[in-house]
Amino acid sequence: MEEIDSMDKLDDALRWSVENKQPIIIDWMASWCRKCIYLKPRLEKIAGEYPGVRFYFVDVNKVPQTVGKRGNITKMPTIQLWKDGEWAAEVIGGHKAWLVMDEVREMIQKHK
User: Fold this and answer.
1) Catalytic one of 36, 39, 60, 104
2) pLDDT digits 0-9 by tens, 89-103
3) Sheet with 2-3, edge to edge strand ranges
């Protein structure tokens, strides 16, 4: 998973999605969020299952301006799928990790 730590990097990730006609996954997380910390390595594992899909994470405390510009993020973690530069789907990860991972896989399959 690659970190998005600026608006430019977020724009680059979205541009890549458009140019390559591939979805991207963005994990909106916070360093203080225990569920976020717990889910991140599991998302990294899922990334290996989908070689054409790029996975990113944004620490909303480091880059708060991204939240308002690219989605209404109200809960942590929020895992979004973007395709063709547009938000397509999301999973809010406040429940059991294995359920979240199943929902992320389903989201990718549906929009791939």
Assistant:
1) 36
2) 999 987 888 899 999
3) 2-3, 54-59, 24-29, 78-83, 86-92
Largest CA distance in the chain: 35
Q: Tokens 């390595």 label which residue?
A: 41
Catalytic residue from among 13, 14, 25, 33? 33
Which domains are delineated in the chain? Answer: 2-111 (3.40.30.10)
Closest CA to 27 of 110, 111, 108: 108
Question: Is 36 one of the annotated active-site residues of the chain?
Answer: yes
Instruction: Answer yes or no: 88 catalytic.
Output: no
Q: What is the pLDDT of residue 66?
A: 64
Which pTM value belongs to this model?
0.91
- Between CA 85 and CA 45 the distance in angstroms is 24
